[in-house]
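Encode chain A's predicted structure.
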Amino acid sequence: MKKILYILTATLFVLSGCKKADFADSTVTGEGLVNFVLRTPSSGTKLVLNAATPNEKVTITWTASQPGISITPTYTWIAALKNGGDLKTPALSIPSDNGGSATTLTLTHKQIDDALGSKGIAVGALTDFIWSVVATNGDVKIQSTDVFNISITRMKDGASPFKLLGPASTLTSQSINPNSVSDFFTFNWTKSNPAPGGPAIKYRVLFAERKVDGNGNELTTDWNSPLFSIQAGTNGIDTFAKVSYKALSDSMFKYGFTSLPSPVTLKWTVVATSGTWNQQSDYTNNIVIIREVKIYIVGSATPNNWDASQAIRMIPDESNFGTFYMYVYLNVGDMKFLNLQAFPPAAGAVDWGQDPTKPAGNLTADNEVNIPVPTAGVYRVTFDLT
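Encoded structure for chain A:
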C-alpha cells in the first residue's frame, strides 16, 4: 500500500512540473502582466500649448503593471482621435520615460505640438483625443483598464508666466475716500513675454468678490467672468494700473456694492493677452476696502451759511454703517448735505437735497431741491446714506 501511494505522489509531481507556463494571466504568480490604471492628466483635461513656453513640461502618469516573475514590462502611450479614431491603430504612439520602463511620460509643449503637426493638425486648432497606455513583457501585451479623454490646442500665440507684485494680499480692511481723484491704488506685476514674433502683450486687472462657504472656506472664482476689470496704463502695455479711489469705488458701486461704508472683500489678478492667448498671473491677491464717507451740512439754516468750505461735518454712527448724525442749532432757512467741503462740479463732489417727487425726508443727488427748516431751534439731524 505504501509503495502504491508513493508512485501516485510521484506521478502527480511530474504532471505538475510539466504544466505549460501561462503568459497571459493577470496575477503576479504567472508570467503575465497585472492590470493597471491611468492617473494623470485626469480625463477631460484641456491642454492649450503655449508658444511662449515651448519647454514647459506635461507629465503623463499611470500605475505599474507588475510582472509575474522576472520580466519588467515596458510602456507605450497611445492616443487616437476621439471622433473616428481607434486605439488599436493609434494616431500617436510614444514610449514612456527611461526607454519605456518608467510609468511616466514627460513631453514638452513643443514635442506635443510637433507630434500633432506631423499628423496634419492645423496651427491653433483644438483636437479631441482618447488616450491610454500599453504594457508589454515581450510575450504579453495589455492595455490599461481605462481610457481617458483630452483636448489639445496646438500652439499659435502665447505669453510667459508672471507674478503679482502689489498691493500685497491682505484681509485687513483699508479705508479710502471714495470721492478722491488724487489718491490712488497702484496694481503692478512682473513682465510677461509673448511668443517669438507674436503680438505684443496687453494687460488687464480683473476683480471678483471673495466668497466663502459656511465653514469659511474660500470658494473658487471663475476668472472668465470677473466682476469688473481695468486696463493697464498706456493703453494696456504697462505692467501697472494706477486707479483712483473714486474710480475703484464707482466700479464697486456699479457692480452691486452700493453701501459705501460696508467692508468689501475683493480678489484681484491680472491677465496678459497676446493675440488669442490669455495668460493669468500665477497668483491672486485679496484686498478689503471700506469707503470712508464724510458728510457735511451747509445752507442758510446752518451756522456757516452757504459757504461750502466751512460746511460742518457730521458724526459717523459706528453702530449703523452709512448713518451720520449731529446736534446743531438751525435757523429758519434752507440746507443741503455734501460729501466734500465743496459743491459740484468740483471733482468728486456730491450734494443731496429733498427729492421733489417723494415725501419730506427722502433725499436725492439728482434734481434735488433745498431742505426747508421752518422753525429755528436745536435739532438732531440724521443722514442715512443707505
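The helical segments are 2-17, 109-118, 233-236, 245-254.
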